[in-house]
Amino acid sequence: MSGHSKWATIKRKKGETDAHRGKIFTKLGREIVIAVKQGGGADPSTNAKLKDVIAKAKAANLPNDNIARSIKKASGEGDNSNYEEITYEGYGPGGVAVICECTTDNRNRTAGDLRHYFDKFGGNLGQSGCVSYMFNKKGVIVIEKNSKINEDTLMMEALEAGAEDFNTEDDCYEILTAQADFSVVREALEAKGYEFLQAEVSMIPNLMTKLTDPEQIKQMDKLIEILEDLDDISNVYHSWEQEEEEDEE
After folding, report:
1. Fewer CB within 10 Å of terminal CB in the chain, N or C?
2. Does residue 1 lie in a domain region?
3. Which domain holds residue 224?
4. How far apart are the C-alpha atoms of 74 and 68, rounded to whole Å?
5. Do 109 and 223 belong together in one domain?
6. For 9-18, 37-46, 104-113, 221-230, which range has the lowest pLDDT when averaged over its residues?
7. Residues 169, 173: Cα–Cα separation, whole Å
8. What b/e sequence results for 157-174 when a residue is b if at least 16 CB atoms lie within 10 Å of its CB, and e otherwise?
9. Which of 11-25, 67-81, 162-176 is least confident?
C-alpha cells in the first residue's frame, strides 16, 4: 500500500478545505444527515456510521455546534431532506480511473453534471463497476508530525490496534487499515490522545496512471478541481500519479 496516498494529496485537500470551508461543511452536514437516517439513529455510540462520519468531520475542523445541528436536523420530524448516496465511475484524460461518491437529492441533476464535466475535460462517465475493481477500500488516518509524537511508539500502537500499514511522509504519519478495522484503530488512537488531519475510509488505487501530455495534465487537474467543487460530490478518488511539483503548485 505504501506510496498510494501521499501527503501531497492530503495537503491539496486541506487547501481546498481552507478555500471552500463553507462548501465542505455543507457536504459533511449532508453525510451526517444520511448517517443518522440510514445508520441507526442519532446516538454515535450505537450508530457506527455516524461515529465514523463525526470523526471525519472533526478532522476537517467542522465545529461541534455544526455537527450537533446536523444531527438534530436529521432527527427532527420537520426534516424533509431526501438525500441518497450514489457512486459514479469513469475515466479522465489518458485513461485515469475516477470514482465520485455523491450525496444528492436529485440523481438526474448529479449524473448530468458529471457527464458534462467528464466530456468537457477529455474523459467519459462509465458504467457502474468500470473502474472500482482497480481500487481497494481502506481506512486512512493521517497524523501531523510534531515534537510530542514518537514515531516508533505511534507505529507500535497503530499496529497493535490492528493497522495494516504505517508510512512516514515529510510532514505526517499515514496509517492504513482494512475497511472493517478502521473504526477500531481510529478509536484506539483517539483514546491515546492523537489528533487527525484525516480520518476516513477511502478508495486506494491498485495501479497509478502517469500523464505526460501537458494538455492532458491540465485537463485532469481541472476535472478534479471542478468535481471536488460540485455540491453533490462528497469524495473524489482517482489513479492519477501526480509529480510532486504539480501537487505543490
Report:
1. C
2. no
3. 84-133+206-241
4. 10
5. yes
6. 9-18
7. 6
8. bbeebebeebbebeebbb
9. 11-25
